[in-house]
């Protein structure tokens, strides 16, 4: 259940869709505000600091990718991007610019609610372990930062969440189904490749070999395995 102070800002120019989405989320216990103009969205997100932003990709004034990129330095909350169903490039670009997750249009209310709740749980839930160290790789979940040999690793929020999940389950194979359930609150549909894309981007950032990875291994038909011992050989 959402906390009483969970505030959501919907940035969406389709007034009817925004109203229906707001009504559904309000009925599920959230406080919801709507912004329909992309040119005003950046300032509104930074000023109001909502607990979560639902951000449409296509907006008048300024598009969602640009908004996401501009607010990331001053807004640390989760951003859920709304994208066209068939455009995987938009989804990947959204994650690259700092979005934490995405939902394809047309929006299914229950799916949207599940994604919102999953993102808020990740933000609010206390972790038993706040930091992990594997050789030169240090991952701090409290600060949401990773360092390799003392140097900050540039990760998006979505990449950090995936790295933390894999690292905190070091030595254990996680299936795509388990990863999707943990990070997105829904099961894997067998087609979404966003997890694979994120893993491919994380590997070189943490010193793993993208061609012959030793730290984050892909196990065919099984999932991903974080091999903590392999971190000793990472080059900082």
Automatic annotation (TrEMBL):
Residues 7-120 form the Response regulatory domain. PROSITE patterns: OMPR_PHOB, RESPONSE_REGULATORY. The keyword Cytoplasm does not apply. Residues 129-228 bind DNA. InterPro entries: CheY-like_superfamily, OmpR/PhoB-type_DNA-bd, Sig_transdc_resp-reg_C-effctor, Sig_transdc_resp-reg_receiver, WalR-like, WH-like_DNA-bd_sf. CDD domains: trans_reg_C (cd00383). Keywords: DNA-binding, Phosphoprotein. The keyword Membrane does not apply. Residues 129-228 form the OmpR/PhoB-type domain. The modification 4-aspartylphosphate is found at residue 56. PANTHER family: REGULATOR OF RPOS, TRANSCRIPTIONAL REGULATORY PROTEIN RSTA. This is Response regulator transcription factor. It comes from Pseudomonas farsensis. The lineage of its organism: Bacteria, Pseudomonadati, Pseudomonadota, Gammaproteobacteria, Pseudomonadales.
